Amino acid sequence: MLTAIAFALSTFAAAPDKGWETLFPKLQNFDRKIGEPSTEKGDKPAKYGQSVVYEWMGGRFEVLTITLARDPKFKDQYSAEAMKKEKAEKLEINKKTAYLWDRMKADDLDKVNRRLVVLLADDKVLEITQRGGGLELADIAKQIDFAKVVKALESPPTK
Fold first, then answer.
1. In angstroms, how far is CA 61 from the centroid of its own chain?
2. Torsion sign across C-alpha atoms 24, 150, 76, 73
3. Cys bridge to 153: 90, 106, 124, 157, which one at CB 3.0-4.6 A?
4. pLDDT tens, position by position, for the chain (159 residues)?
5. Continuous H helices in 9-100
6. This prediction's pTM
7. Closest by alpha carbon to 28, among 59, 51, 2, 54?
8. Which residues pair with 15 in a beta bridge?
9. Is the torsion defined by CA of 118, 149, 4, 104 positive or negative?
10. What is the pLDDT of residues 103-129, one digit of tens each?
11. Which runs of E-coded beta strand occur in the chain?
């Protein structure tokens, strides 16, 4: 299984001047659509992010969304106290705390049934949501260079 997952995950794109695109992995057999950056209005926005949607091109239903985001509210939203109330599994991924929500139900394929949030800093997160099933979210997160994401999240993404 891990070999199949490793095979499905390819290397990061190396093209410069593409904004945050290089931070998102290319997944074999997935169509990748890079969304427009979202940025709070103002000269020095504190809240911003960017998402990429992946749609499986094979014989099963699976849609992944990977979001890189910065928001001062994350400190409280994902605090240890707040997470005690959640029914999420606490994980460690590449030396970072992460939380996995697993709501797998065969009849809810059109809804998010898995969600992984990796806490990169008090105000920075990597979120992966999944509709359908197939790849393990923690394995996808492990392929992302957290140090590069944290650095990119120091300023808003460009279009």
1. 19
2. negative
3. 124
4. 333 333 343 333 333 335 688 899 989 899 999 999 999 998 889 999 999 999 998 877 889 999 999 999 999 999 988 998 988 899 999 999 999 998 765 555 567 889 999 999 999 999 999 998 778 999 999 999 999 999 999 999 876
5. 74-77, 80-85
6. 0.83
7. 54
8. none
9. positive
10. 765 555 567 889 999 999 999 999 999
11. 9-12, 25-27, 30-34, 38-39, 48-56, 62-70, 89-93, 96-102, 114-121, 124-132
124-132/62-70 β-pairing: antiparallel
Pull the structure tokens for residue 99: 């939380």
Closest to 124 (Cα-Cα) out of 46, 53, 54, 52 = 46
**CA–CA dist 136, 46 (Å, integer):** 31
Task: At 108, list the tokens.
Answer: 């809810």
What tokens appear for 21 in the block?
């695109």
